[in-house]
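Appendix C reproduces, verbatim, an entry submitted by the partner laboratory led by Prof. M.T., so that reviewers can inspect both the input and the predicted structure.
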Amino acid sequence: MDSLQKALSLLPHGPDFRFVDKLSRLEPGKTGAGEYQVRGDEPFLRGHFPGEPIFPGVLLVEAVAQLAGVVAQCDPNIPALSNLKLTAIHGAKIRGTARPGEIIHLEATVLKRMGNLIQARGTAKVSDNIILQAELVLSGDSPPTGS
């Protein structure tokens, strides 16, 4: 397994709720890029919307948060946090859609860390069109000390 795919394995999500298929770039603790292929067989597409499926905007936010989590958890200078979760969304703008067969290109940058909080900014694009911009806060539990 190459180092990019190894970093991706840090995601705690199961396969049915993983919205980053592969990483294309990673500067651990700083920034990263990845992608998700909208296959068309995802169960949520059947109801969003029948006959005209589009990838839900809230899952675009989740995809960017997952990528931001990978970027942050790979920081070689800071121990990974356990139970990392998305805890805040600021200034999210959904500017477009992704449909079956399209590839969502994701980018995330860690802006700062404060204890157990990670502030990040991310975007999602289809082709060259930005379909999501958001600032996110992730939080987790500190690793145990000692041992």
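The chain has one domain: 3-141. Additional entries are available on request from the coordinating office.
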